[in-house]
Amino acid sequence: MVTAAAVLLLLGAQAGPVHAAKGFRPAPWGDLFGVGSPRREPRGERLRGSVRRAAVPLPRPRPDDAPAAETATRTGPAAAEPQAPQAGKPAEQAAPATAPSPPPAPQASACRQALTEAIAIAPSIPDIHGAGGCGGEDLVRLEAIVLPDQRRVAVKPAAILRCAMASELADWIRTDIAPLAVSLGSTISDLDNFDSFECRGRNRIVGARLSEHGRANALDVRALKLANGRSISLTDRTVPRAVRETVLHSVCARFSTVLGPSSDWYHEDHIHLDLMERRNNYRICQWDVLDPLPQIAPLLPAIRPDDAPPREVAAKSDGAKPDNAKPEAAAPAEAAKQDKAEPEPAKPATKKPATKKRR
């Protein structure tokens, strides 16, 4: 018995240094609430834990000039978090959470800000992004152009264009075409839109380069209609040449591309206008102001006049002509034939015997 007790004491004495060498220390929260652990701790560890509990700092007293507690909670980070409903109150009475604010609207371009309703009725439409670069941004639907005297020039049908193209068209109608209509004794009322935005190749050829119509940067104009009912077709040869030349000079000074009659076979009945950007600001103006076609003689014979002689008399007068009347051109030909004919040889003269005269 004595030997067994000595062995146990020896093992217990060696266990303390082993734990100390391994850095064994109890968890700091083991006796946080004063509830002791059932296992025994070394004396040094118990003293160290008691010192740590005594050194926990307490919050400072609130200063007098600090904001109120409610204001601090509102301005603090916890103000953004929704508060849980209080106990005893239904969930419907709880304050609703604030909805997220919508994203800010994109700022309008300088062209869109300048194209007001005092210049044109052109509401904005969403951007179009099609295949092959078709479409564009900053698009409008040009419905009418407002003249300086507040009268409107309807665009029929409404044209889908870029804002820059719509602005240039509006200024062209207001500055150049409106005074031209006044000089003709009327006012302009309609703009005949033959084609505007259309996702296609040039001249509608499959595989061709994208047309400016596909970029909403072109307009085909066919005619200008006046308030008195007159329609001025820009490719009609019967329209006065001076009027068509005035329109020609005005569009070629404003637009980078102008195509009309004699440019190709695709623009014989309308005028193509666009604002295509090229190197060195290169421009194309191909529009021949053609003269009226010459008058062609009728295919059917003219009506016989009343004072013409009867057909029977006319037939007799034609048949009464002598047959020996030959054209003067035939006389030299017959004379040439007679000159070419060989002369016949002369026959020797025969002498008759002399006869005596009877008395």
TrEMBL record:
Region: Disordered, residue numbers:
23-110, 301-359
**What residue spans carry the Basic and acidic residues bias annotation?**
38-48, 304-326, 336-345
Q: Where is the composition biased (Basic residues)?
A: 349-359
Q: Signal peptide position in this chain?
A: 1-20
Low complexity: which segments have biased composition? Answer: 66-98
Q: Which residues form the Extensin-like C-terminal domain?
A: 110-286
What does the UniProt keyword field contain?
Signal
Name of the protein in question: Uncharacterized conserved protein
